[in-house]
Amino acid sequence: MTGSFTLAYVPGVTPGKWARVWQERLPETPLVLVQVGAAEAAEKVRSGEADAALLRLPGDREDLHAIPLYTETTVVVHPKDQELADELSVEDLAGHVLWQPLDDTLEWETVPGQPPVERPETTAAAVEIVAAGVGLLVVPQSLARLHHRRDLAYKTLTDAPQSRVALSFPIRDENPELVEHLIGIVRGRSVNSTRGPQQEPARKQEPARKPQQRRASAPRQQQKPPAKRAKSRRGR
Q1: 140 closest CA partner among 119, 115, 117, 166
Q2: Of 22, 156, 203, 236, which residue is 20 to 30 A from 175 by alpha carbon distance?
Q3: Separation CA 9–CA 96 (nearest Å)
Q4: 210 band by pLDDT with thresholds 50, 70 and 90
C-alpha cells in the first residue's frame, strides 16, 4: 500500500502512540500528522485537506462520521494563588467571571458564573487572561495540561458538560481501507483482528478421504436341521 494518509488533530489530543503503531503496520504508507484549531478540524476533513481528524464532540458533524474514543475530565483553570477546593461544582463558580472562548466545545445549557465583557477567540487567549488574575476558565483536562503555566492550577469540575474525543472521517470516504486500519489502531485491535481489511486466510487442506469399501455382510449362520426324533421301540 503506497501514498500517504493525513490525520489532523486538535490541541490537547496526542496521536503519537497511534502513529507509532501505524508505522509498524503500514511502513509503506506514511501517516502525516497535522495539528489544527478546534474550530477548523471538521472543515479540513470535508475539504479533503485531511483524510481524517481527531477532534472533540459535540461539534460540527455535517457529512462526517464520528467514532467516540474517550471522554475527558472537565476542569477549572485558576490562578495558583487563588484558594479553591480540590473538587468544584457549578454552584462554586457563581461569583466568578467565567471565560468562554470561541473555540470552546463544551455544551452548556446555561453558562455558570458572571458573563465576561467579551469572548476570547481561542483557549490560549483565555488562559492568558486568567493568568493575569481575571476570572476562571473551564476546559477539558488535556487543554489545561497543554497550556500549563507555573502561575496557574486546575481543579476538577464534577457536574459540568464533558468533551469526547472522536475519530472523524467523511461519510463518502475515498480511502476506506486506510480508515479501517486507523479505526482498528485507535480502538486497540490487534493486527489479526477479524474486523477491518485483511488477507483472506488460506484454507486448510483436508486430507483425502479413502474410498469407502462396502462392508461385506456377515455370512448368515446356517441353521442346523432339527434332530430326528428316535423311533420308539415296541416291545416284542
Answers
A1: 166
A2: 203
A3: 32
A4: low
The number of beta carbons lying within 10 Å of the beta carbon of residue 111 is 15
Tell me the H-state helices in the chain. 16-25, 41-47, 123-131, 141-146, 176-186
User: What mean pLDDT comes out for the span 181-207?
Assistant: 62
CA 84 from chain center: how many Å?
34
Task: Please name the helix (run of DSSP H) or strand (run of DSSP E) that holds residue 29, with its range, or none.
Answer: none
Cα 50 to Cα 213: distance, rounded to the nearest angstrom: 67
For residue range 4-41, what is the model confidence (pLDDT) as tens digits? 899 999 999 999 999 999 999 999 999 999 999 988 89
CA 173 to chain CA mean position, Å: 18
Note the pLDDT tens digit of each residue in 112-130.
888 888 999 999 999 999 9
Between 173 and 215, the higher pLDDT residue: 173
Q: Give the CA-trace dihedral at 122, 48, 106, 58, to 10 degrees.
A: 170
Type of residue numbered 22:
W
The grid coordinates listed for 17 are 502512540
Backbone angles phi, psi at 134, to 5 degrees: -115, 110
Q: Are the C-beta atoms of residues 25 and 191 closer than 8 Å to each other? A: yes
- What is the spatial distance between Cα 180 and Cα 134, in angstroms, rounded to a whole number? 46
* Set of cell numbers at residue 192: 489479526
